[in-house]
Structures are given as structure tokens and as C-alpha cells.
């Protein structure tokens, strides 16, 4: 059996804000990790509840855990504060992040560290399951991204992995994080994507199929990423997409850029399109402007969105809100995918006058034909 000092040294930063219901379970799962020498830094981000006191209680019982109490600065700021302490201490070899309402499955950190010890890559990313009311579910897209074990690869070799934007299913070499000057954007939501994109583009990485993270989906909608109809949420989403796109364009690889724009950057737009009928005029104007800014002359009909959402995207590009609302309301009434006829999407005439719709906005691809 390896002695403790020979175990991989992993530092984990845990931001905490208004999570007293979840923090004990998160910390218990972290402190129960085996096969690694562990350092935990909890950042009490000006929490209005007892999260800070809970963390202090854990620190009093376990000397592997320390707590920083700071004024509220948001998730990105809290992660940066904790990481700065880890870098100053220079105690460990590896850096990881855990959100305080989520859970690590047993052996997750050891599994990630084992990959890096074998490959000498700069970081590793594992699969994730969503922790919902009816149990744990691995999203099909996450399973696809992690379908095989890959080691020491570059972004241009596996550009679809740029869609795995999460901060917390990864383990980084501390030396890589420091040398690249990585940090999380502050003052915005969806801060994960710009930083993880920069990491993918800067280093060699491993992709493993193992599930290393349990992501809690809050049924009450209190997560900051479950409020898409707000102008603030949409603005932050568009801003962080722009930051990630800028990094990809600087990478200067045509194949990676095309895949990112069509598949990765467009991937979550359908979640916003569903909000169109209930959103404000300001939100709609921001959506139209943002899509024009990010996609320019390249239409969303070229993207990897499902057929009906490619149609909605085409309508958004043309600022046809009434038509976009009509299509989204119709989609809400369907029990399954939108109907199709041969190589064409079928939309009832009372929903949308197809005489004024470009054929490419209704076209199906080979794999979409029933």
C-alpha cells in the first residue's frame, strides 16, 4: 500500500454561497475521497446563510480543510480567490473545483489523477451525471463526448470536446494552470466556458469515459443557470460565448473554428429559443443582436441544432418575432419531434406561412430523415 506522502496531491477549491442545504453532502463526498492526498479550500463568498459556519465546523474537525471568508463577489471571483491561495501555498500537484451543491462519486479524484500520472497531459476531463429528482442520468451528449478514452490529445484532434465546458469534472496540473495564467471571468454567469476553452486550446489533455461528478439539478429553479428568460442571463451567455469564440479564433485552426461555431457555440441556443414567447422586448432585441454578432454571415441553418430550432434560429436572424413565437408555441403542444415529410420539416400553415421561408430553413439532413 502506498504511503500517504506518495499519493497524488490534489487541491480542491469549493466556492460556497447560500448553500447550507447542500454543503455538508458536498464536503462529505470530497473528504471521503481515497487514493489522493487532499487539500480543500472552501471560499465563503459572503454567504447570507450558515454556509460559512458549516465550513468552519468542518475545518475544526479536519485539518485538510481551510476556509476563506470574503465579501460576495460571485462564483468566478470565489474560485479565483481560492485558486490564488492554492498557488501561493504551492503544496499540491493538481487542482480541481467542486461546486458546493454537487457531489463527487467515490474514487473520482483518484481516477482523474491516475490518468494524468500515466499520460503526462496538462489536464483530464471525465464524464458527468445529472442528479435529478428521479435519480442519476448521464446526458447523451456527455456520453458521446466521453465515449472513448483518449490521452495526450489537442483540441484540433477532438474539437467536439469543447462542448464539455464545465469547471468541475476536470483535474489540472497546477504547473499548467500557473504557466497559462488561467483564471475565471468575474461578474458574469457561465464563466466556465471561456476558461475551459482556453485550457483545451493551450494544452494536451486526456478524455476518460468514467463518471467523475454528480451535478445536482435543483428542482426549485434557484440555480443561477436556470433563469434564462432574464436579460442578465442572456447577456452573460452571449458575452461568455464571445470570449470563448475569441480564444478559438486566436487558435487559428479552420476545422476547430468551424466545429466550434456550428456545433459547440450553437448547442444550447434551443434552451433560449423556448423562452421567446414569454420574454421581454429587450431580451428579444438582445438575442437578435447577439446572434448577428456571434454568427455573422453564417446562418444557424448550418448548425447542429435540431431541425425545428434551426427554423427558429433562421426566424430570429431575420427579426421575425411573431413567427418565431408561433413556432415555439406550436412545438410546446407536440408530444415528440416536429413532423417531417421526406427531406423537409412540416409546419402547419396556421403556424407559419411557408411561402416566405427559405427551403434551407426547413431542410432535413440524412440522419434526420424518418
Outline of the structure:
39% of the residues lie in helices and 17% in strands. The protein is of the alpha/beta class and 370 residues long. The model has no long low-confidence stretch (mean pLDDT 94).
Question: How would you describe the overall organization of this protein?
Answer:
The radius of gyration is 22 Å and the shape is globular. The protein has two domains: 4-225, Spore Coat Polysaccharide Biosynthesis Protein SpsA, Chain A; 266-368, no CATH class. Strands 1, 2, 3, 4, 5, 6, 7, 8 and 9 form a nine-stranded mixed beta sheet that branches. Helix content is 39%, strand content 17%. The chain is built from 13 helices and eleven strands. The chain has helices at residues 23-31, 51-61, 75-89, 108-119, 140-145, 174-180, 192-202, 231-251, 254-264, 269-273, 281-295, 307-317, 321-332, and strands spanning 9-16, 37-45, 65-70, 94-97, 123-132, 135-137, 150-153, 170-173, 205-216, 340-341, 344-345. The mean pLDDT is 94. It is of the alpha/beta class.
Amino acid at each position: 500500500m502506498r504511503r500517504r506522502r506518495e499519493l497524488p496531491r490534489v487541491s480542491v477549491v469549493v466556492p460556497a454561497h447560500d448553500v447550507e442545504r447542500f454543503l455538508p453532502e458536498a464536503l462529505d463526498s470530497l473528504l471521503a475521497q481515497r487514493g489522493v492526498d487532499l487539500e480543500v479550500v472552501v471560499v465563503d463568498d459572503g454567504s447570507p446563510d450558515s454556509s460559512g459556519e458549516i465550513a468552519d465546523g468542518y475545518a475544526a474537525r479536519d485539518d485538510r480543510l481551510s476556509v476563506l471568508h470574503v465579501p460576495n463577489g460571485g462564483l468566478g471571483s470565489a474560485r479565483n480567490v481560492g485558486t490564488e491561495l492554492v498557488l501561493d501555498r504551492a503544496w499540491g500537484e493538481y487542482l480541481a473545483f467542486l461546486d458546493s451543491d454537487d457531489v463527487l462519486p467515490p474514487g473520482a479524484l483518484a481516477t482523474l489523477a491516475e490518468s494524468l500520472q500515466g499520460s503526462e497531459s496538462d489536464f483530464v476531463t471525465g464524464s458527468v451525471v445529472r442528479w435529478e429528482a428521479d435519480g442519476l442520468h448521464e446526458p447523451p451528449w456527455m456520453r458521446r463526448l466521453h465515449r472513448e478514452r483518449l490521452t495526450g490529445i489537442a483540441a484540433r484532434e477532438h474539437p467536439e470536446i469543447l462542448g464539455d465546458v464545465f469547471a468541475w469534472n476536470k483535474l489540472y496540473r497546477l504547473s499548467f494552470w500557473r504557466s497559462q495564467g488561467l483564471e475565471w471571468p468575474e461578474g458574469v454567469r457561465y464563466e466556465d466556458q471561456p476558461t475551459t476553452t482556453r485550457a483545451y486550446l493551450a494544452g494536451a489533455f486526456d478524455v476518460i469515459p468514467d463518471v467523475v461528478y454528480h451535478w445536482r439539478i435543483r428542482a426549485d429553479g434557484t440555480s443561477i443557470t436556470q433563469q434564462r428568460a432574464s436579460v442578465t442571463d442572456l447577456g452573460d451567455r452571449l458575452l461568455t460565448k464571445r470570449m470563448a469564440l475569441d480564444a478559438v479564433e486566436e487558435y487559428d485552426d479552420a476545422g476547430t473554428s468551424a466545429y466550434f461555431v456550428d456545433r459547440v457555440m450553437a448547442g444550447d441556443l434551443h434552451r433560449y429559443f423556448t423562452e421567446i414567447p414569454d420574454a421581454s422586448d429587450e431580451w428579444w432585441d438582445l438575442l437578435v443582436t447577439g446572434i448577428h454578432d456571434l454568427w455573422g454571415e453564417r446562418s444557424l441553418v448550418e448548425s447542429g441544432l435540431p431541425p425545428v430550432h434551426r427554423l427558429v434560429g433562421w426566424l430570429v436572424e431575420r427579426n421575425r418575432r411573431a413567427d418565431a413565437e408561433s413556432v415555439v408555441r406550436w412545438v410546446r403542444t407536440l408530444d415528440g419531434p416536429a413532423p417531417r415529410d421526406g427531406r423537409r420539416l412540416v409546419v402547419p400553415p396556421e403556424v407559419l406561412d411557408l411561402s416566405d421561408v427559405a427551403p434551407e430553413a426547413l431542410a432535413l439532413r440524412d440522419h434526420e430523415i424518418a
